Amino acid sequence: MSSPPAPTRPFAATLGALTFGKATSNAALRWMSPFLPTLSRAFDASVGTLTGIMGAAELAGLSTTLTGGALDRGRHRTVFLGSLVLVTVSSLVALLGTVWAFALAVVLLILGVANLTVAGLALIGDRVEFSARGRAVGTYETSWALSLLAVAPLLALLIDRFGWRAAYLALAATSAIGLLVVARWVPTPADAGPLRRRRETGNTPAAPLPRAAWAALGSAAFISASGLSVFVISGAWLEERFALATGGLGIVATAIGAVELASSGSVALTADRLGKRRAVAAGGVVLLIGAAVMWIADRATGSSAGVVALGVTGLLLLILGFEFGFVSSLSLMTEAAPDARGRAIAAGNAMGTVARALALALSGQLFEWFGVTGPIGFSSVAMVAGLICLILSRR
Is 2 a member of any domain? Predict the structure, then answer.
C-alpha cells in the first residue's frame, strides 16, 4: 500500500478549518466540567446527578461505529457538518433549564463531538504521512485546549453578568460560525484526494480489523478516561476544598486551557522526532506525578495560598501529562489499521466512549464518597492500563 501524500497547502487550510470547527464543539463540551457547581444550581441537581447524566450520555459516542464505513467512503465533510448542527442544537435545548433538557442536550452534544472528531482524524490519517502525522494530529487537537482557553473567561463573565443561559446562547452562536467555516474550507468527497481513488476501486468487502490494532485502540481509550475522570470534578473539588468562586474557577479553567495548548503544541513539535510511543509514556509519567501532588494538597491542613497553589499545580500537571499522552496516542490510533482507517478510528472512539462513560459515571460518585482521592485513584489505574496496552501493541 502506497503512503498517502504529504499535506499540501490546500490541506493546510482544510486542517485549519477542521481545527476551528472542532474547537467550537469542544467549547460546548468542555465548559461544563469546570463550571459544574454553576450548572448544579442552574438545573437544580447535584454534582453526582449531573456527572451521572454526562456519563450515560457519553455512550452516544458509540454511534461512531455506524459512521466508520461512511468515512472510508470519503464522507468526512457530511459527517463533520451534520455533527456541528447537532452541537448547535444541543446548546439551544439546554436553555429550557430542566434536568431532562440537560440530559437531551448532552446526548446531542456527544453525538456531534464524537462523530466530528472521528471524521477529522480519519481525513488527517488519509492525507498525511505517518512520519508527519504527529504534527497534524497535534495541530488538530489544539482545538481541545483553545476551546477552553478562549471560552472559559468569557463564559465566566457572561454567567456573572447575565446568568447561565447567556453561556449557552454564546456557545450556540460559536458552533454555528464553526459550521460555516467548515462548509467553506473542508473539501467535498470528490476532492478528498486518495479517498476518491479508494472509492473508484469498486465495492470491495470490508476486511476485519487486524488483531494488532486492538491494543493500540485500547491504549487510547484507557488514557482518555484517565484525564476526564479528574477534569470533570475539578471545579467541584476546587470550590469545596479551597472555596474558589466562579471567577476563580474561570481563572483555573483558563490556566488548564493554556497548559493543554502548550501540551498539544509540544506534541505537534516533538512527537514525530521523539517517537509517538515514547511520547505516550512520558505523558503517563507526568500524569501520575500530578495525581500524587493533588493528593498531597488535598491532605494538607488549611486552605492557605500555598496549599491552593499546590493543588492547582497538581491539577495542571495531571492535565499536562494527560493531554501530551492522549494526543500522542491518537497518532498511533490513526495507523492501527491503514486499510480500514475510518472503521478503526470509529472502533477506537467507541472503546474510548465506554471508558469515558465509566469515568464520568463513577468520578462524581467517587468524589462524593472518597473526596478527590477516588477520582485520582481511578485516573492512575486507567493510565497504567493504557501504558500496558501500549506495550502490548508492539507485539
Answer: no
The answer to whether 346 touches 218, Cβ cutoff 8 Å, is no
User: 144: domain range?
Assistant: 10-201+209-392
CA distance 358 to 332: 23
How many domains are contained in the chain? 1
Assign 205 to helix, strand or coil. Answer: coil
Distances (CA, A) of 170 to 156, 162, 209, 299, 347: 12, 12, 41, 38, 33
Alpha-helical segments (H) within the chain: 9-30, 36-42, 47-57, 64-72, 76-94, 99-127, 133-162, 164-185, 194-200, 211-242, 246-274, 276-299, 305-334, 341-370, 373-392
167 contact partners, CB below 8 Å, separation of at least 6? 31, 35, 155, 158, 159
**pTM greater than 0.85:** no
Q: Tell me the pLDDT tens digit for each residue of 12-33.
A: 889 999 999 999 999 999 889 8
Query: Which amino acid is present at 38?
Result: T
